[in-house]
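Lab notes, practical 5.
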Amino acid sequence: MPLPASPSLPAVRPARASETRRAPLPDVDERLVMPETRYEIIDGKATYVPPADEAHGTRHSKISAILEAYAADSYDVASDMLTRTSAKGDMAPDASVFPAARDPETGGRQLDELVFEVVSTERLSSAAKKARALAARGVRRIFAIDVERRRALSWSRETNAWEILPVDGKIEDRALALPLPLRALCEAAKADDAVAQALLGKKNPVIEDAVRKSKSEGKREGKREGEKLGLLAGKLDALFAVLHARKIDIPKKTEKRIRAETSAATVDAWIRRVGICASIEDLLGD
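Output from the prediction step:
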């Protein structure tokens, strides 16, 4: 008896290439939230970002100033600038460094390459959510500055967690003109020094001009001071010549004292008395 025919299966249509590709990410400057408000979108949820307290606000300000000084010529720096991370994400890092050139494909701005978040120890876990989203979007390096413990951390894609950086270390990156000291990011007292060092290292024209003027003035002042010292030394030589000619005894200690005199008025007074003094004590008025 013949076996019944097997029911035919519906033909399977091969998946189109467009269906296997991931949906394209939104442009980094396409918004989910209204700019200039205190909201971010994290994992599809609107999150209110409260104003910063003193510790956060002052550190935020210092970091932005440092980054402005250290950014390479082809990069720009922003504070609290929204970055679209995904279809459900739109968030604003405390500070970021991104290419100054426009995106050749979209005409908008390019994605941040370095991102910095100012956090308290308690907020590290919530900052991790932002770090994951930013890393998934393609931000190359993400840092957190813990204001309470004065430490810097870096987001690791390998461990999917924060890693503590050595406080005496430096950030070296193509987006920075010079290696950036981590201590300057963590300690307010070092921030101004770091900015000054960066401006000197980048040969900032205003700083360069100030240095040139300072050197020039220093040379002029040095020349004037040298002329004064030379004249004073000549007067002292004349003073000793007269003392020796008059055979007035000069102890070594007293000679050193006279040679160390820097007041032109005092030396002039000695010269006026050298012809009539009876002793070295009489000359010096001791």
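Observations recorded by the TA: The first strand starts at residue 39 and ends at 42. Residues 167 and 183 are 5 Å apart (CA to CA).
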